[in-house]
Write a structure and sequence with these properties.
The complex is a heterodimer of chains A (about 200) and B (about 425).
Chain A: E1 6-14, H1 21-24, H2 44-47, E2 70-73, H3 85-93, E3 97-100, H4 105-112, E4 117-120, H5 123-135, E5 140-144, E6 149-151, E7 158-159, H6 164-171, H7 176-181, H8 184-193
Parallel strand pairs in A: 1-2, 2-3, 3-4
Antiparallel strand pairs in A: 1-5, 5-6, 6-7
Chain B: E1 16-17, H1 36-52, E2 55-56, H2 67-73, E3 82-85, E4 99-102, H3 105-114, E5 123-130, H4 139-150, E6 158-163, H5 165-168, H6 172-180, E7 189-191, H7 196-202, H8 211-222, E8 234-239, E9 246-248, E10 256-258, H9 273-285, E11 300-304, H10 305-308, H11 311-321, E12 331-335, H12 339-347, H13 350-357, E13 360-361, E14 382-385, E15 400-403, H14 406-415, H15 421-427
Parallel strand pairs in B: 1-2, 3-4, 5-6, 5-8, 6-7, 11-12, 11-14, 12-13, 14-15
Antiparallel strand pairs in B: 9-10
Helix pairs in contact in B: 4-6, 11-13, 11-14
Chain lengths: ~200, ~425
């Protein structure tokens, strides 16, 4: 996966709360291997009709959204099922950051392990961004992970908090398992003393 | 993921596997799975478990079922354990006093390879349920009422402990329903302090300790309950006696109302996105503002899942169904949560009660909760369901789900509409 540092990109506003992982990647794609084109499954039933034609009203099918690398969403984005496929679909579509007032906990954990940044900002700030994106679809949002900020053109830099461990994984495109295996001696030492 | 990196499970004897999402409920033959990718996935679970030395209950094993039903039932999930599984409803096991939560596929691989997981300590939320639940009001009604109160993101970032008189009075099965749907309030883990009810449930189960080891275990488990003055980051209180039978009307579990209620009117919601979202929901669900919930007719009834697929759930449904028939035009299914649940129900004659009424009595699995095995609600059809999610398309593309307790789902089956089960049982 790609490291994330600083980038500016078009963004997709998803102006509805509680977007669940069933919407992001419907369950009928869960048996697909990671190598499958998950970007095609992103928001499948909101984006496409049953016959595979596009739903022209859905935001991902409107100008400037197809090349978007950022999603701006409402409360509780990624709630529900633990399926990592939801993160894969966003990543394969090209999304590298999601900005929302809150996230499903499991989704946020999955995101950090797959090169997808989750940015938590106050609801008012997010609503302002969504309104701006709806008014001017070609706006680019700038993401600065080292400094933990996101900003609209000519707007203030909104600072966000991120777990330092997750920040390291994302900044370096680090694989968490490889990182932990580097500390296997600590695990072995613990196991010698653990009776449970 | 492990094989690609040349890794093996580090402590296979601490892992367990059973197929649930993809198994057919019409029979017990994996080869009956039509989709080659799904069949390969179910096969891989068996062969990979065998190669790694991981205990596996396959379709030919009478103990197979939904993992969140099977592990507690076998006594594998015990107080004080840290339990993870690649499924968000792993919170279920917190009913035994374990810290249990769902993880994604990468974290499953991480745990298998290293027997560790990187975690920040979550914030804590205590839900105190005072008083007693009314007659025919269940843990499902309680959790739906709680989610309606605090919202689908109400417990995000929190581990939730359930306490209070009404929680203590619940069976372990009811406690599992409560902990199971914690994730529907955004909380990854829900748990209940182990007590005499927990110990009585576990004693004698196949994987529970025996003899002196049992005594030592209970002694240790008694130490797990929080101190009386323990502080929580947040507290929520709810009065059990105020809770009515609950049903959902929308596409989020927080869209729950007492059965005596009416479909809300988007015009009464705050202008803007919330109003549009509600209007979109009513259009998807095929409902009218102001419509009485009891005027909503159903096409299907599904009783099962990790939320409500245990023996107590089937007993409470059977009590309603006994001596009645499934309403004309309604297709009603019972999918027991595990092989032992099915066998116990059959020993009590519940299968006859359901079959005589016109229900289908099927094999254990996740089935129509999410339809990955092909058991789906057709587009436009409305299903009274004892499951945990009423999301758009959850039970199949275009499906319309109303969540409720097993007794309420049974009442919907025999009347053909959403019905206050207390009416049937008082009259009955």
């Amino acid at each position: 996966m790609e490291p994330i540092t600083r980038f500016a990109a078009h963004a997709v506003p998803i102006d509805r709360p509680n977007v669940d992982t069933d919407q992001i990647t419907p369950a009928r794609y869960l048996q697909k291997p990671r190598s499958a084109p998950f970007g095609d499954f992103l928001f499948r039933d909101l984006r496409f009709n049953a016959d595979g034609t596009e739903k022209p009203d859905f935001v991902l099918n409107t100008p400037f959204r197809r090349e978007a690398r950022i999603v701006v969403a409402e409360d509780n984005f990624g709630c529900g099922s633990s399926r990592e496929h939801a993160v894969w679909a966003l990543y394969d579509f090209g999304i590298r950051a999601v900005i929302a007032p809150s996230f499903g906990d499991i989704f946020a954990a999955n995101a950090a392990k797959n090169g997808l940044l989750t940015v938590v900002l106050p609801a008012k700030t997010v609503q302002g961004m969504i309104a701006a994106l709806n008014a001017e679809p070609d706006l680019e949002i700038a993401v600065d992970l080292p400094n933990q900020t996101v900003s609209l053109p000519n707007g203030p830099a909104h600072r966000f908090e991120i777990d330092p461990h997750r920040k390291q994984l994302l900044l370096n495109g680090l694989d968490e398992l490889g990182f932990t295996l580097g500390q296997i001696a600590t695990i072995e030492a613990f196991e010698k003393t653990y009776a449970g | 993921m492990l094989r690609q990196r040349g890794l093996r499970p580090r402590v296979p004897e601490r892992a367990f596997a059973t197929p649930d999402h993809y198994v057919p409920t019409s029979g017990r033959d994996l080869q009956a799975i039509q989709d080659p990718e799904k069949r390969a996935m179910a096969d891989a679970l068996r062969t990979d478990s065998a190669a790694a030395g991981i205990a596996f209950f396959g379709l030919d094993d009478p103990r197979q079922g939904i993992v969140h039903v099977v592990a507690p039932e076998q006594g594998m999930s015990r107080p004080g354990m840290l339990i993870v599984c690649g499924d968000s409803h792993t919170s279920t096991h917190g009913a035994l006093g374990a810290l249990a939560f769902g993880i994604g596929a990468s974290e499953v691989a991480h745990v298998l390879a290293t027997q560790t997981l990187w975690q920040r300590r979550p914030a804590t939320l205590r839900v105190t349920v005072s008083g007693r639940l009314g007659t025919h009001i269940t843990a499902k009604d309680l959790i739906l009422a709680l989610i309606a109160q605090i919202g689908a993101a109400g417990a995000t970032g929190h581990a939730v402990e359930y306490a209070g008189e009404a929680v203590e009075a619940l069976s372990v099965e009811g406690r599992m329903t409560l902990c199971n749907m914690t994730i529907e309030a955004g909380g990854r883990a829900g748990l209940i302090a182990p007590d005499a009810t927990t110990f009585a449930y576990l004693k004698g189960r196949p994987f529970a300790p025996e003899g002196a080891a049992w005594d030592r275990a209970v002694h240790a488990w008694r130490e797990l309950a929080g101190d009386p003055g323990a502080a929580f980051d947040r507290e929520v209180e709810i009065d059990a006696s105020s809770i009515e039978p609950m049903v959902t009307w929308g596409n989020s579990p927080q869209d729950a109302l007492p059965i005596g209620g009416m479909i809300p009117d988007p015009a009464a919601a705050p202008a803007g996105e919330r109003r549009e979202a509600m209007a979109r929901t009513l259009a998807y669900m095929g409902l009218e503002p102001g419509q009485a919930l009891t005027d909503v007719t159903v096409d299907r009834v599904f009783i099962g899942s990790c939320t409500n697929g245990r023996l107590e759930d089937l007993q409470s449904a059977a009590e309603v169904v006994c001596g009645r028939k499934v309403a004309s035009g309604v297709e009603a299914w019972i999918v027991p949560g595990s092989g032992p649940v099915k066998a116990s129900a059959e020993a009590l004659g519940l299968d006859r009660v359901f079959k005589d009424a016109g229900f289908q009595w099927r094999e254990p699995g996740c089935s129509m909760c999410l339809g990955t095995n092909g058991d789906q609600v057709p587009a436009g059809q409305r299903c009274a369901s004892t499951t945990n999610r009423n999301f758009v398309g959850r039970q199949g593309p275009g499906s319309r789900t109303h969540l409720m307790s097993p007794a309420m789902a049974a009442a919907a089956a025999v009347t053909g509409r959403l019905t206050d089960v207390r009416r049937l049982l008082v009259e009955g």
